[in-house]
């Protein structure tokens, strides 16, 4: 392969110099040199094995990359150069994210610009706006059924508005993340409409079968993602055939066996990068490849496709990065960060779903043994990559508790998952949670949970009962969870919109016919700006939560151990209710976090800190209450936590 590239390189660089000028053209060639081996290998593995010419396909993809680079503005090229010098820019200690629906946060993209001071004040440096590209009319899976990759939802604004927002964010040294649905399009997308009209080129963009023979063969090993809302994985379209629809009947899966689909998606990413997008959340990436006899999830070819998309973007717009939306088992998760054998470049970020699940598990059980067991066996992310850590997101909570991990601490996995569903739905005796079950299966008793952070922590219940003692405990639980995700290190902690002011469940979702059959909208309330105005009132719930989160964010900025280049690992404390995590960095003092998942005061022996490399531990930040170090022990109040350094 190297010989092929030596022959082709001169022409590629000459074209780049002709289009971009000498300096940028040579830089383009240098970037290709960095990725060419992995890019060609991935293309050959997926497409060469199916009769396509890998050399020609790589050159085609590089031509698309050059077209993107040519259209890149001067401001974005400068940003590219800065980030190439500082490739870990997204994993600095200052990075803290915020995720929101544009319309629910500020109405429009222009409205978001008007609210950036709110994010600045909180300490946000990374804004993730939920699906904003033009969706199909009517039901659209919250925007994940995209009808046009080249246009913004007209209710939110225009592409010019998106560019203006990106420019404002960059002026504030903030990054913009958007969702890019790479697995499927809406049935109304021009590609799908052309396929429906009989165009053979676009018919090959989707997996379409003339009868049920092959769909039945595939479905023998597929799982249903939404068994109640959308049973099965195929939809019959009159005059066309059986279309693969993993999620809903109006979301048509793209066929990445066709290299034209791959090239089209590279062009889409290049165009959006040139609008100022810094981070692409690649939606539903585990489903990109289909193969009979498998569950068609997390297949090696799916990883190869992501590697190709990412490497093309590295050449054309090196200031951008990718985040994998892959809610998979811990053993499979790190592979989306390139943690293969051998390691290869894939996404820079992935969601730490396991940390989120284990936080809620520990909170309900008052026991962190399962959390410690589950997290201590997870592989570290490869160098130059990191987790997105979070307490809540726009989605439901699925209980990713493996039977193996549960058995290791003497628990029954099925029973524990059932307990968590009962607890967070408020059905367990003494529960303070007010969540609701999502996609409950009456046969298997499987379910997931919807609800805002405030509702699941007990803040909603305490407010309704006007119980100040219960409210204080609920706020401590709320801040305990965030102390772990914000203090994890080597990651981007992300707050979900409204959590900074403890927004309650929004039960009015049931009155909206577009949302009534999807109770996840209960935890997607509109931003309450009247409540946000109380964020500086220390006597209000909003003020107490906001002050606590802002204090954690500011303290994190002053801890260089949180930046990229270190490792974070779970530690056993000897106390079943106290979780510990250790952060180390070759150039900075070690860090130890302790979190007490208990409604009673607890303590752990001081040697826990010494074993983590802290010989003279001092609190950097701690919860309200009696956190102290004396008599050879570290004492924590109920739902207490502490960040320790040497």
Number of helices: 24
Q: Into which percent range does the helicity of residues fall?
A: 25-40%
The main pleated sheet reads as: 8 strands, parallel, barrel
Distance between the termini: 51 Å
How much of the residues is beta strand, in percent?
15-25%
Low-pLDDT residue spans: none
The general outline is globular
Radius of gyration: 25 Å
Q: Classify the secondary structure makeup into a structural class.
A: alpha/beta
Mean pLDDT: 95
User: How many runs of DSSP E, i.e. beta strands?
Assistant: 26
Question: Strand order across the biggest sheet?
Answer: 1-2-5-11-12-13-14-18
Description:
The chain is α/β, with parallel strands linked by helices and 646 residues long. It is built from 24 helices and 26 strands. It has an eight-stranded parallel β-barrel with strand order 1-2-5-11-12-13-14-18, surrounded by four helices. Strands 19-20-21-26-23 form a five-stranded antiparallel beta sheet. A hairpin with a 2-residue loop joins strand 20 and strand 21. It is globular.
